[in-house]
Design goal:
Elements lengths: L9 H4 L7 H15 L12 E8 L5 E3 L15 E5 L16 E3 L4 E3 L5 E4 L35 E8 L8 H18 L2 E2 L2 E6 L2 E6 L2 H4 L7 E5 L1 H6 L12
Antiparallel strand pairs: 1-7, 2-6, 3-4, 3-7, 5-6, 8-9, 9-10, 10-11
Helix pairs in contact: 2-3
Length: 244
């Protein structure tokens, strides 16, 4: 399992911990399970492979289930396949061909909205990805049952997405800082420069040197912090739904 922080980084992001060796590694893994659980991000934050099957709109658009989209790993190119896109016949649905690979360059993904667009979709020949008879694509209207609807083409996309926690990007550092807070609150009652006590489900924490500890503030930080409030930070990475 690739963890958000390594044991060697604990001194930087959670220096108050008095855990070492296997105990520290176990605490880090437990914290990551919590952060990536339904209480937090509800998804893996490290690079993970996702496979999604989506129906395309008439202009070749769809929305990936993992919204917002985590950074897509550039070293692992995406794979895009298309299938179907036929109008059911009156008495028997037209056959659907197998998946046909598309050029990955045709798939444009907006990481902010999760929108996927197949560039040049209108120029694709349906005969390339559908086994329906050629006549089905004529301009003549075809009879359908009142309850039948046109079958839209489907796209299957494989991609790797997640944060590279070896980088020094600001967002990665911020995630590690928040990870350190959760690690401290859940794994220690007292540590170097930190005191904590639990009262009615709340954690009272005093950071003697917050700049060294988490680089979050320039002043002494004292307050009542709920674990749920810390985990709320990771809600921004929650997917709309899990991919297939």
């Amino acid at each position: 399992m690739k963890t958000i922080i390594e044991a060697s980084e604990a001194l930087t992001y959670a220096p108050a911990l008095s855990l070492y060796g296997a105990a520290l590694e176990s605490a880090i893994v437990s914290t990551q399970f919590l952060i990536e659980s339904v209480l937090g991000a509800n998804r893996p934050l490290s690079p993970t492979k996702f496979t999604e099957t989506l129906n395309l709109s008439g202009d070749g658009r769809a929305y990936l289930a993992n919204l917002p989209i985590l950074p897509i790993a550039e070293e692992t190119p995406i794979r895009v396949k298309i299938r179907g896109g036929t109008l059911p016949s009156y008495s028997l649905d037209a056959p659907v061909a197998g998946w046909v690979d598309l050029d990955p360059e045709q798939a444009e993904i907006d990481s902010k909205t999760g929108e996927l667009q197949i560039l040049g979709y209108g120029l694709l020949q349906p005969s390339l990805y559908s086994a329906a008879p050629a006549g089905i694509y004529s301009s003549s209207p075809r009879r359908t049952r009142p309850t039948q609807r046109p079958q839209t083409p489907a796209i299957q996309i494989d991609y790797w997405a997640g944060f590279d926690f070896t980088s020094e990007e600001a967002e990665v550092i911020r995630i590690k800082q928040m990870f350190g807070q959760v690690l401290i609150l859940t794994q220690t009652d007292a540590g170097n420069g930190v005191k904590r006590r639990k009262v009615d489900g709340e954690y009272e924490v005093e950071y003697q040197n917050p700049v060294l500890l988490l680089n979050l503030e320039n002043q002494r930080t004292t307050g009542s912090i709920q674990l749920d409030n810390l985990l709320t930070f990771f809600h921004q990475y929650r997917p709309r739904s899990y991919a297939a």
